[in-house]
Amino acid sequence: MDKSEMIVKKELIDSAAMGRAITRIAHEILEKNKGTEDLVLIGIRTRGVPLAERLAAKIEEIEGVKLPTGILDITLYRDDLSTVAQQPIVHRTEIPFDITGKKVVLVDDVLYTGRTVRAALDALIDLGRPLQIQLAIMIDRGHRELPIRADFVGKNLPTSKDEVVDVNFKEIDEKDAVLLLEKS
Fold first, then answer.
1. How many domains does the chain have?
2. Contact assessment for residue 129 and residue 101, using Cβ atoms and an 8 Å cutoff
3. Which structural domain, as residue segments, surrounds residue 28?
4. pLDDT tens sequence across 75-125
């Protein structure tokens, strides 16, 4: 669905609640991994990137350790590439460190069918052999088509397939919010 044909039905999460969710996810990542050793964060372009950067900043605030953070572009790994665009725009993957032997936390804004995560896993494996890959997301809206689940979730939001969950970050969208959109 094209977001330009959608209207805001409801604001589900405001800026303060997003901040609390990010703090909680950062603590959960540290707890599960028993600290920061060999831990890296990789955001899936586009809105997984500011979430990964915020998680890294929160972890640095908590532990005093700056985690390596990267950006993963999955455009060429998508299984719906032919339906996305005639000439899809490919951005650069920016991971300036070796992921081999690392505990990678893959970060994205919304987990829906699982296909974006599948594409990201393929892209990561082409870059090296991580010790472990975990998934952190802001919103899990259900409707999985693949056997994929998140290790760290900001909020579970059951939705209908006709609705769209739009996660906004001030770095990209000029405000922090999670919106529920519906067809106008």
1. 1
2. yes
3. 16-163
4. 888 877 655 556 667 788 999 999 999 999 999 999 999 999 999 999 999
